[in-house]
Amino acid sequence: MPDIALLGVDVGSTTIKAAAYTADGRAIALETRRSPVIRRNPGWSEQDMAEVWSITADCIRAVTGKLDGQEIASIGVCGQGDGLWLLDAAGQPLRNSILWNDSRADDLVLDWIADGTSAKLSRFSRTSNWAGTAGSAFRWLRAHDPATASRVASLFYCKDWINYRLTGEIATDFSDASIPFMDIERRTYDDSTFDLLDVHELKGKLAPPRPSASPHGRLLAEVAGELGLPSGLPVAAGSIDLGAMLVAMGLNNAGDVALILGTTAVVNVVIEPEPFHGEPVGATLCHPLNHRWIRVIAPLSGALALDWFTSLHQSSLGGNDAAAVASRLNELVSSVPAGANGVVFLPYLSGERAPFVAPHATGSFHGLTSATTKAEMARAVMEGVCFSLKHCFRTTGLANPGQVFMTGGGARNRLWCDVLASVLGTTIVVSSAGDHGLWGAAAIGGHAAGLIDAEHLPERAEDQRRHYPVAELVASYDRLFEFYETIARASRPIWEAGRAFRPTPRNT
After folding, report:
1. Is 232 a domain residue?
2. What DSSP character marks residue 454?
3. What CATH code is carried by the domain that includes residue 350?
4. For residues 236 and 368, what is the distance between their CA atoms, to the nearest angstrom?
């Protein structure tokens, strides 16, 4: 009898991956493909739905072609969340999908913030609405392409589109459906949310939600032949990619924390459901495996700040690759003590969205003197991003989390992880694995098929390193963080006054 394997698929905004795993999480075969993003106008971000499916199918075929005696027994899919993915009455894509990071509906969102609509909406979804959510994007579509908007028969999300192509069934899961139409306490769409956003025509057109680790359907015979898979394979409802990552890391309990540190950063905290305390900053999602929620706080500060600083000093901090640049930067940063001799950096180089919303915020150095060195400024930039993340954790109610599981490109910088551990006052755990979304999707698929227990996954054979806080640095950084917060608060009127001197972005 052949060994069984679990197929996972991770459909990201720019990359699509597929992999076959053993039940203990060992990857048997893995394939990655680039997925083009269409940017026809500034701020627009779209994808051709047919192309997304074609690339996904190619990835799956490549994986099944690598199997040597193993037989796929289940399929689980995760993907980018939010955005606008539409079908017509014939079950065909109506247009390109509008992605989660599209900003064409910014003016609508600003109006909703000003008139209190966003605050009212957050009572249901516990999320601060933005332009890339389905309600915002649909309102823009109706205003600019009413003929297409009038033909919407079904609305769902990225991984649901792949599941639909696999099974012919239209559905979604609670993690993807959390924003913006769901009453997350009752786990059902609420008519009031459609009324608030004036999208009455979408009532009854959203895909019905179900638990992530429940069955979505079975693989169609004609699709199975195309992909090299057995017909009738069980396909799970699946989850948003962030949820799948937490499942793979075993972060299912209240207080569990994950940090994705890439160009921007994403703080994820598992919490128990709680009463409404007013409009939040960030988003709230249903956990894929249980009744808990995931608070998602995504500041714009991340590796972008370090990239900006090193780009200004190409002769001394440049390199042939990211590792070489990081090595030179770390050598410079290590030459000055923690706290950068009183130099503090606000890392708001692209405005800020969390832990506060300030689109007109700007970055700045404080504490500069004629004796300030490039090394002190470099250390201040690295520490400033860490202070921003500490600010985010405080917003979630976790001033000093027990430990933080960390992934993303920034996790490869050991010095940065050391600094972050002392700024947060907690242990940073970094895994060598880079496939958490994939393994999480496969595990959810295996759970839905009754093959494994995704909530109690076995430990995988992956190297982990730990970065521990240094007690004396924790106390020093706590004092410096209070100064950082003071500067951030005092800067708000300066940011507003400075708008008059900055170029106005083109809004097409």
Report:
1. yes
2. G
3. 3.30.420.40
4. 55
